[in-house]
Amino acid sequence: FPFPFHQGSQQTPPQKHYGITSPFRLAAPKETNCRLTQKLVETLKPFGVFEEKEELQCRILILGKLTW
Fold this sequence. Notes:
Layout: H1 31-44, H2 53-67
Domain Poly(A) polymerase nucleotidyltransferase: 19-66
Protein name: Poly(A) polymerase nucleotidyltransferase domain-containing protein
InterPro entries: NT_sf, PolA_pol_NTPase
């Protein structure tokens, strides 16, 4: 699954929020949402919308140079 998420009813401490506004929902995704997301990813893969690992590493390297 390309996007990290955690399922289950485990109690977790309050999460740190990044950005200007807080998220509107902190609940884990429902199983239906996970299945639909996976179907969407599989549908989009043939169109080349996801970058390869090498492209990601190159982008991270360049962004790192730009921020310093």
